[in-house]
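The instructor's notes for this session suggest beginning with a concrete chain rather than abstract definitions. Hand out the sequence below and ask the class to guess, before any prediction is shown, which regions might be ordered.
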Amino acid sequence: MFLYTKQSLITLAVIALLSAHLHAAVSASHPQDEIVVTEGTPINVVTVKEVTTKDAKPNDPVEFTVAEDLVINGQVIVRKGTPAVGSVITAQKRGYMGKSGKLAVQVESTTTSDGQRVKLRAAKGREGDDKTMSTVWLSAISPAFLIRRGSEARIEPGMVVTVYVAEEKRFRVEGATLVPVVMETTTSSAEDATVFIYRPKKWGGRALEPSVFVDETELARMDNGRYFALKLKPGKHIIRLTEDEKGYAIDMGPGQTYFFRIGMELGMWKGHGKITLDDRERAVEEIKKLKFIGKDKIKATALVVDIAPQ
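After discussion, reveal the predicted structure:
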């Protein structure tokens, strides 16, 4: 009897030991549940200081703070009051004949409760003039929101803006610490951004040929009724005319396409070039009517490419 009991106890001990090892193996193969911050997750941010077209210029920093905690699965991912980084895309002062100023701002990133960078974007915009106010979708400048109001465009302190997480982020919690889960990079994340610059054929100011720049490089003298394109590495680039304030500073995403329309403003004594970030639908239809820019007008032959929008 005693021998039988002893053998039974040994058998139970072996089973318990095997069960413990099996449980450990299963646990090891199933790590802690991940916290997923999906692309497009909304975050409200608040402007800290006034921004106006009287003083701002492209690429000037703009301060924001997060308006409330971002909580996922009971875990605070981004805390209320965390600074968010932004910048001016374009700041065009009021023009001739009472034309309103135009101000576009992008919200670029904030940080998690553990200090890790989270890229942001905004997709809604608003523009109008002295008499009307409308709402538009700025598909061409998805990282930005646009305000155009009265004689000078202005963003006041305390303005709440909804922005969105620009890329999926994954975390796991170890103790009280958020630990990022490294995700595989895709080929598309390194794909160049494409930029089209075009000038519709117009009678007024046809003899003027404003220079177009990317960052500090002159691309071409933009003659009447022509277009050209360029490929740029993802990241922030400034597309502008000769004057620094006449341009756009955009954090360009991989594989994204942007369209810039060159026009002429008639002044008191002479005309001036103007540049506008255009939407895809109108730009593609306009470019179909134009010829590629002449080789004698191109200044940066290594950057300018002869392609047509799809």
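Then share the key points. The chain is about 10% helix and 45% strand. The CA atoms of residues 2 and 8 lie 10 Å apart.
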